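Trying the structure run again after the queue cleared.
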Amino acid sequence: MADPGKPPPYNYGAIPTDSGNQPPPPYPATVGFQGAGKPENYMPPPTHPYPQPQPYQCPPQPATTTTIIAQPAQTVFLNMVFGESPVSMVCPHCQTHIITCTTYQDGTLTWLASGALCLLGCWAGCCLIPFCLDGCKDVIHSCPNCHSRLGCFRRM
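Done. Tokens:
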């Protein structure tokens, strides 16, 4: 016998029915179908309003003849990076293989170092020391054959 304080066990999957209720009506999607076929008011999907794109056809090209004229190569050292030491290269002026000659010239770093020494109180002659040191000067690269200036290494 069932315990009066305990609810009855729940029956999963069963459709609860009351004594006077009818089962629910069939699902509306199943109404109007004739067996497993199409519904009676079936319309096919609309066709696409635009035609299918055609692949692009390149226009015919006229036959052309290309003439290649070879000229002797000239090496231009515009992007050549010069440093403190001599560089092995081909001179763009005399077209000979050379090792550059380097000379030192007073530059911005020389003048700034001399000015800084003056401000620190070394104005009695010590401020001229940067003009005697090659490490403070700019380096000029030139050709030993034609003496043309090829590049410069600036310290500042």
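The two ends are 106 Å apart (CA to CA). Worth checking whether this holds up in the mutant runs.
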